[in-house]
Structure prediction request, 325 residues.
Amino acid sequence: MTLLRNVDLNLLEALAVLLEERHVTRAADRYHLSQSAMSRVLQRLRETFGDELLVRTPNGYEPTRRGRQIQSELAVILPRLEMLLRGEVFDPAKATGNLRIHCTDYATSVLGPGLLPRLVREAPGISFSVSPLTDQSFTDVEQGRADLVIAGVIAPPSLRWQTLFEEEFVCLLAREHPCTAERLSIGDFLAHPHVVITVLADSQTMVERRLDEHGLRRPTGLRVPYFSAAAAALPGTELIAALPRRGALPYADHPDYRIAEAPEELPPFPYGMAWHPRVDDDPAHRWLRQAVRDATEQVTGQQADPTSDPSRPAPPTVTIEHEHT
Prediction:
């Protein structure tokens, strides 16, 4: 315990911020210090740990091997210290801090109306941030840079996963689209160009993965980053957008659009949330997860899947997919 008595524990939170931001100025802004003060903090940390922790490269600062190890440890230690000091009592009306959610515009449009106002109303002292889902979202949760991922991409086994509801694909078309069937055949589906939502890069989309199982490939006419952008591109074209049903419902009565059932080759898929096991018992995180479940119940009229046990690791990981909202 001799080393612990000689260390200012406040430095650990500053180190976590520095390792997350990998930029002294951004870390200083986030930690409410001047740049020069944060530089002095970094120097103290280097002396404390006997390691450079962050080194300058042509692409900016990068953590050393020791720095990455410490970052992983801090992601577990700091929440536990916070819970130790705070105790088990959690009152959202009096709570402070930050909670960070990664999801797509589909999730914000479907769950947002029942979730976001509640978060702000019940916990005015907590700063909430909603960031786009990216290839790094699950890594961000593992390393403490994000608290929760809401997506149709089942999390890796290192994270917890709970299915919120089952979703299915439909095809959103322009009203004058030549395909007029209530359900598109796979032939019609593949005969026209598609607008693809590229939420995640360097991986197959859910649609591509399902089609690949049948040895099929769809033509791509346009790629966009958002579900709302995919819908906006359809009028006046023969493009097809394969969207989650709940994401297409706002266009059901719009005169410029028509919704058709997707081919049977595109089956339903689970939609859920993922978090790190270290926050299983964190009162603030439990409150956040329950708020997501309650918002889900408002949308679906059903409680989150009771067979999806959030106290256990997530099921085996699947390929990360673009259109899996």
